[in-house]
Design a protein that fits this description.
Blueprint lengths: L14 E4 L3 E4 L31 E5 L10 E3 L3 H4 L3 E3 L10 E20 L10 E5 L2 E2 L12 E21 L6 E8 L10 H12 L5 E12 L5 H10 L4 E5 L19 H4 L10 H11 L3 H5 L8 H9 L4 E5 L1 E9 L2 E9 L5 E11 L5 H6 L3 E3 L4 H4 L16 E5 L6 E2 L1 E5 L29 H14 L16 H22 L9 E6 L2 E3 L4 E3 L7 H5 L7 E5 L3 E4 L11 E5 L4 E4 L11 E3 L11 H4 L2 H21 L3 H7 L1 H10 L20 E4 L25 E2 L8 E20 L20 E10 L2 E8 L6 E21 L6 E8 L9
Parallel strand pairs: 11-12, 11-16, 12-13, 16-28
Antiparallel strand pairs: 1-2, 3-10, 4-5, 5-10, 6-9, 6-10, 7-8, 7-9, 14-15, 15-16, 17-23, 18-19, 18-22, 20-21, 24-27, 25-26, 29-31, 30-35, 31-34, 31-35, 32-33, 32-34
Helix pairs in contact: 3-14, 5-7, 14-16
């Protein structure tokens, strides 16, 4: 059951309002050729009645069409081409018409103008026609010789009262249309340049692009992906009034239902070791896994993504406002501080500003820092800078490529591309615009094992697509992301041509056809912001220790080859295994913008060190650290750098308190009443004192740091804390075992770990009598914080009544506090 959008069938136009001016539309098209809407997240802008805002002119965005037919709304490139657009994503199968009915058309002769882009001017792969009242204009749009978005003349038409327009796809190969104009001024020429286009759109549509005041916040987080979601949630939980700005219709970024990159991290590369990242990303992952059945996760292979759990957690925070479908357009500054951000609605073009005290850049492309003038870096450092193995002799601006992804309309699966198996052989005629592959391009891509296993692996990648379908690194996906995405379409067609027509084992694919190529780009690298410390590859390889450690990493130095599919050296520059290492806080704030933090792909790291920091779980823990640091800075009225200089211990202890692992730093929270308590248990095959030893996970030295009851004693079993003196108690935190030895996606086969405590009771002894303060049933989370009416107690007891399958009770940590008040008290 979807809890993100109320999707209903296209044609009936079922709408539900979503905060921030976006409107959701369910798209379940009937009899659509190719079933293209199985493969993207459907959404649309609020329907608008098209009227003459300026006499003699009717303006409609393609997004204003009442029926998108088989076309999809693409808002990825609003900041570069001025608006959203409809794209015919049929993968060489034409899609059904998009339709617009105009009902306020004054009688007269109208010239039609269509704004489109020929995405390969030499070949015009994506073309379409336009019908007016059922009659084709006779023009072919998307075939112009000019590069970029331009207006094409659609001829003169006699109209009166109403008019029906339709976009008619001619090729199914990603033709696109952003806007149309009908004008009685037959000599009018619409502007092409982006700023002029945006101003003309506002003038003729009547939708103002004047900047409106949109609220004031303690913390503004820009970017709703795997770093931005945890950053905003963490900031809000400190008590800061927080805004989360996302330019997409769903949360999660690369880990969303649109892109679907799994939340991998250290545990994947250190199998059997208890090193999975915890904190907010663990909380979100547990929500996602618990929300699906074993059948859905295993046999149906539903996607484990962050769209649903992030939205659940964001909605639960009263201090957090979500501004969805807004692109960051610019900032205002006062001295060395950012004071405001300017946002543009990706659906309507309307603009607003938000003011904030602390800013966190989680955009992935570091746009917030860029607009503010933060020190930044793009591309590869020279070897002489950090002596990193794998660095080039000279610095350059080459980056890792994105790859294409397609999220299914029910948000349950995400693919690279899709093919279809038939009963008879299927020919594939390659288009003339594919890449020319070098002869040895397969070197390093087949994997190990027997030749047969290698061929099976290649056949599987051909059928399903894979992560190394990448364009060369000189393609600019920072300043021209639409072109870069289009290059990835070329890459996918190139790969299909190779495996269908040239591969020695092409008979394995004889009965397959290419069914669908997505249009959403999941980026790996673009721009990084520079902090007081730049993490480099040697820091990771040598496990350098930092006094300002805020999280750990353990994924390989996973750096993809700068030539993409044209590489003859395999898909990697390096893929170096590293020990469980440390991420320092100084990578998470700008060295020259006083109130700017950053996380995820924007963090201060070299091109090679980014190979481990960019992974989704690492993004999440840097996000939680940045959001928490913003709260600490606000509390002490200091800067992010001031937090490092004066309040580092407080930041580290807050992260531990909120279940983020900080290597080498034990719990020393002076407010935690459990640290001085005497601990006893009804039984145990490990010491009960483990729950207060300050380490809330098993460690690599083999210590469990967990109380486990005696397996010979049946449940219930209890653990009891005798406080140093009678104290006011109003909050208790519990950490349970959710098996940190495997990555979150791997837990699809064990969605609720049997070790995890399911049913339990918390009691406080008040005046010699036990008083129940919490009774919890059906728990599936590792970390639980319970707040209740404060009592004066001398003892606290946790009784485990049932687990999710294990015979023994396992408790990793207990903390006891006078209250659960946030860091910022009002």
């Amino acid at each position: 059951m979807l809890n993100r959008r109320d999707f209903v069938k296209a044609g009936s136009l079922g709408l539900s309002f979503v905060a921030g001016s976006g409107w959701a539309l369910a798209f379940d098209p009937i009899d659509v050729s190719g079933g293209e809407f199985n493969n993207c997240i459907p959404f649309r802008k609020k329907p608008r009645v098209i009227r003459e805002a300026v006499p003699g002119f009717l303006w409609a965005d393609a997004a204003d069409f009442q029926d998108y037919g088989g076309w999809a709304l693409d808002t990825q490139h609003v900041g570069f081409m001025g608006s959203s657009y409809l794209i015919a994503h049929g993968t060489s199968k034409t899609v059904s018409d998009a339709a617009l009915k105009l009902t306020a058309v004054k009688p007269g002769k109208y010239r039609l103008w269509i704004r489109s882009r020929n995405w390969i001017p030499e070949h015009a792969p994506g073309t379409f026609g336009v019908a007016v009242d059922g009659n084709d204009t006779g023009n072919t749009f998307g075939a112009q010789k000019e590069k970029g978005w331009v207006w094409q003349d659609g001829g003169v038409h006699d109209l009166a009262g109403s008019a029906n327009l339709a976009l008619r796809d001619k090729t199914g190969i990603f033709g696109r249309c952003s806007s149309l104009i009908l004008t009685r001024d037959l000599n009018y020429q619409p502007p092409v340049k982006i700023e002029a286009f945006k101003n003309e759109r506002a003038r003729l549509s009547g939708v103002s692009n004047e900047i409106k005041r949109g609220g004031s916040y303690d913390v503004i987080v820009v970017g709703g992906g795997p770093s931005g979601g945890p950053a905003a949630i963490a900031a809000a939980r400190t008590g800061a009034k927080t805004a989360l700005v996302s330019n997409r219709p769903v949360l999660g970024g690369n880990s969303s239902a649109e892109i679907g990159v799994p939340v991998q991290g250290a545990a994947k590369k250190h199998p059997g070791k208890p090193v999975r990242e915890t904190g907010i990303i663990e909380e979100a992952g547990r929500i996602e896994l618990h929300g699906m059945t074993h059948e859905q996760l295993t046999n149906k292979r539903w996607s484990v993504n962050m769209t649903r759990p992030f939205k659940t957690l964001v909605d639960a925070e009263p201090q957090l406002d979500l501004h969805e479908n807004f692109w960051l357009e610019g900032v205002k500054k006062k001295g060395g501080r950012i004071t405001e951000v300017t946002l543009v609605d990706t659906l309507t073009g309307e603009r607003k500003s938000l003011s904030g005290a602390m800013l966190i850049d989680c955009t992935g492309d570091a746009w917030l820092g860029h607009h503010a003038g933060a020190d930044e870096r793009v591309g590869r450092e020279a070897f002489s800078e950090y002596q990193e193995e794998g660095a080039p002799e000279e610095a350059d601006d080459l980056t890792m490529s994105a790859c294409l992804r397609a999220g299914r309309r029910d948000m349950r699966q995400v693919t690279f591309h899709q093919s279809r198996q038939h009963e008879t052989p299927q020919a594939f005629a390659p288009p003339p615009w594919i890449y020319d592959l070098p002869e040895e391009w397969l070197n390093g891509r087949t994997g190990g094992g027997s030749l047969e296993n290698q061929n099976k692996r290649l056949a599987s990648w051909a059928v399903n697509g894979t992560w190394w379908y990448e364009h060369p690194g000189d393609v600019d996906d920072l300043w021209d992301p639409e072109f870069a995405r289009d290059e990835l379409i070329r890459v996918n067609y190139t790969m299909w041509d190779y495996f269908k027509n040239h591969w020695e084992e092409r008979k394995r694919l004889a009965k397959y056809s290419l069914d669908y190529v997505g249009f959403m780009a999941g980026k790996r690298e673009s721009r990084r912001l520079m902090g007081d410390l730049v993490l480099n590859a040697n820091d990771a390889i040598e496990n350098r220790q930092f006094d300002d450690v805020i999280a750990h990493t353990g994924w390989t130095l996973d750096v993809h080859h700068h030539l993409g599919i044209l590489s003859t050296e395999g898909p990697f520059t390096i893929d170096t295994h590293i020990p469980i290492g440390q991420i320092p806080y100084r990578c998470l704030y700008s060295r020259n913008i006083d109130n700017l933090l950053m996380a995820g792909r924007c963090a201060s790291a070299t091109h090679l060190a980014l190979g481990t920091v960019r992974i989704q779980a690492s993004c999440a823990v840097t996000g939680q650290a940045a959001g928490t640091a913003a709260g600490v800075a606000l509390k002490h009225q200091t800067t992010p750098r001031g937090v490092y200089q004066e309040h580092m211990t407080e930041l580290q202890q807050l992260l531990l308190k909120n279940d983020q692992y900080v290597p080498g730093i034990p719990n020393r929270d002076p407010a935690d009443l459990a640290l001085g308590a005497k601990v006893t248990a009804t039984s145990g095959q490990s010491t009960a004192d483990n729950v207060v030893n300050g380490i809330a996970r098993p460690t690599l030295d083999g210590k469990t740091n967990t109380w486990e009851s005696d397996s010979k004693q049946s449940l219930p079993q209890s653990i009891e804390l005798t406080l140093e003196k009678p104290s006011k108690v109003g909050a208790i935190q519990c950490v349970f075992d959710t098996d940190l030895t495997v990555s979150m996606p791997t837990q699809r086969t064990n969605r609720v770990p049997e070790e995890c405590v399911r049913d339990y009771t918390l009691e406080c002894r008040v005046n010699g009598k036990w008083q129940r303060v919490v009774r919890e049933r059906d728990n599936f989370q590792r970390f639980r914080r319970h707040q209740f009416r404060q009592v004066l107690a001398d003892k606290v007891r946790l009784t485990v009544e049932a687990t999710n399958g294990a015979e023994t009770a396992r408790v990793v940590e207990l903390r006891v506090y006078p209250d659960a008040a946030p860091l910022l008290m009002g």
